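hey so i finally got around to running the thing on that chain from the lab meeting. sorry it took forever, my laptop kept dying and i had to restart like 3 times. anyway pasting the input first so we r on the same page abt which one it is
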Amino acid sequence: MLNVLRSVAIASTALSLGLFAASAQAQTVLNGHVTAGANLSGAKITASFLNGGSETLTWAKIKNQGDGKGGVLSSQGWSLTQAGDSFVYPWILQADASISLAALTIDLFGGNAAFDTEEDANAASNTDGSFQGVPFTVKPGFLRPDSVVYSTPIDISNGDLFSTLTLRWDNGFSNSLLKFVADTDSGTSENPVAIAEPPAEPAEPPVAPPLVTLVETPPSTTRVPEPSVLLGLLAIAGLGRSLNRGHETELPSDSFL
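ok and heres what got predicted. didnt touch it at all, straight out
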């Protein structure tokens, strides 16, 4: 029986250590390789239209279009593609005259990748393993969107790695072409990209008990006699009744005649 208990204890310890090791390793590890459009399969691209509604497509490698190319092609008249090292080669967004885009959101989480925005590899905000990055940069001759926002940092980010990039146009993007560079990094297959945990919400302060107002009752103004005084008064009253009985005069029986 003792040997069985020892075996159970050893197995439990090994399981605990295994879970601890898995938890310690369950964070993003960047592969350090060049990330191109063909490496982003699974990313989600959402186009929001100026007249309302939206469409989300899944990024895929484009075959027979040269090495490293991937993208999405919508039947509604817009497309987004990227070919080659994203550190150098641009993303290409196209929209027909039949539609107008209010926003475009690129979410790389499903493609096991993240945007790398830090240009200085020696900066404090540069995450180890991400090397030099390139933030959103419009190629010469093209108009910049009205708003460019990186969001959803990944777990190991020092402030430079984000899962999502959103472009917005106040008056819509229609019948137009946009070329821009936005560098990306990929996670390993063993430790893929993970999203940073949101900060814990501060604990609510304890609720103070309701205030209770104590009302002091004023002392009574009626004086209560001492017991000895009461006894004296009772004795006097009894004596008075005795004296009255002693002075009573019995009337003759014929006085009513």
